[in-house]
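[audit] Reproducing an earlier prediction to check determinism. Same input, same settings, fresh worker. If the tokens differ from the archived copy the diff job will pick it up downstream; this log only records the rerun itself.
[audit] input (83 residues):
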Amino acid sequence: MWWMDGGFHWGWMLFGGLMMLFFWGGLIALAVVIIRSFGGGISSSGQVGTPGNKPALQILEEGYAKGEISQEEFETMRAAITD
């Protein structure tokens, strides 16, 4: 009978509990890493933004290229953004 050889093995119970914590902790850490990789990050221009949110300078350049703002407005706004 199993209880005759020293009683209940607390060491194995502790080991099993720790392994369960490591498993769930690793699974949660993996989920966080995956979620962060699909989220925002630093764009190629070095500015922080999420996909779909363009950096301000890029939006300003696009507006100037489309003719929505004049050259003077572009220069003024660019100076405000880069300072």
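[audit] rerun output stored. Observation attached for the diff report: The mean pLDDT is 80.
[audit] end
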